[in-house]
Design goal:
about 280 residues; Thiol Ester Dehydrase, Chain A; long-chain fatty acyl-CoA hydrolase activity; ACO11 thioesterase; hydrolase
């Protein structure tokens, strides 16, 4: 969307669990001149309630009213289960996939060393970046992380990449005013028309002797569009030995999970139930 258009953001609690809740967010824009409405993105955020001294607060259950709310209520439990078993699912996929890293073959393309896409930046948390409690806004951290991820993606494709999706922003801890945030990004894998960039954020205080705190991590998918709006073919990536090969293979596994999830959600509720009671017989 462009300057002068109206952005509409809608958020609603889909389901409340014991101490956490899922909030669904939808973003769309409206062109005031043409009257056109268009959906931009959709996201799900998990919030937890904290009491005094960080104690857990038990949430009241939410009762869905409309048919749409009932579907979201049901799928929220599936999404929560998928988040909880995500590490195990990833580990299972890696176990079943070949151990050797197999680079995709593309005509006329030369593999770009992953090391050339590495980016590191340092940001100082100032009062405008934090809330009334002095904790850094989550959105500010996300914006900084997207900046370094975009630079890393640009170094691979030598073009202006477009952010297509974000896989699990995981806030591991807070940062405060006065902290320095070290933001790191590197391209983990480049597929034919998309690439995955891994980003992490670490925080430390003024005293350099204090060890850095890992406060956030995410995986971002970028594409490069041609003049007609179609995804361009990307160069191959040569992963670094050792840890880089692990990230390369994990990126492929995450792509499979995304595609499988997209297929399941695309099915009609009347054809394939999106959420069913789990038992040992239907675990697949």
């Amino acid at each position: 969307f462009s300057v002068g258009q109206v952005v509409n953001i809608k958020a609603k609690v889909n389901r409340a669990f014991n101490t956490s809740m899922e909030v669904g967010i939808q973003v769309s824009y409206e062109d005031l001149c043409s009257g056109k409405h268009c959906s931009i993105c959709k996201a799900y955020a998990t919030f937890v309630a904290q009491g005094p001294l960080g104690s857990k607060v038990r949430l009241k259950p939410l009762t869905p009213q409309t048919e749409e709310e009932k579907i979201e209520y049901s799928i929220a439990a599936e999404r929560r289960r998928m988040r909880l078993v995500h590490k195990d699912t990833l580990k299972d996929l890696l176990t079943r996939s070949p151990q050797e890293t197999e680079l995709e073959t593309r005509d006329g393309s030369v593999a770009v060393p992953a090391e050339k896409t590495r980016v590191e930046s340092v940001e100082l948390v100032l009062p405008p970046h934090a809330n009334h409690q002095g904790n850094t806004f989550g959105g500010q951290i996300m914006a900084w992380m997207e900046n370094v991820a975009t630079i890393a993606a640009s170094r691979l494709c030598h073009a202006h990449p477009m952010l297509r999706a974000i896989e699990m922003f995981h806030f591991r801890g807070p940062s405060q005013v006065g902290d320095r945030l070290v933001l790191k990004a590197i391209v983990n894998n480049a597929f034919k028309n998309s690439m995955e960039v891994g980003v992490s954020a670490e925080a430390y205080g003024q005293e350099m002797s204090v060890s850095r705190r890992h406060i956030n991590s995410a995986f971002m998918t970028f594409v490069v569009l041609d003049q007609e709006g179609h995804p361009r073919t990307l160069p191959m990536l040569a992963p670094e030995p050792g840890d880089g090969e692990r990230r390369y293979r994990e990126a492929s596994a995450r792509k499979k999970i995304r595609l499988d999830r997209k297929y399941v959600v695309s099915c009609k509720q009347t054809e394939v139930p999106l959420s069913v009671p789990w038992d040992q017989s239907n675990k697949v």
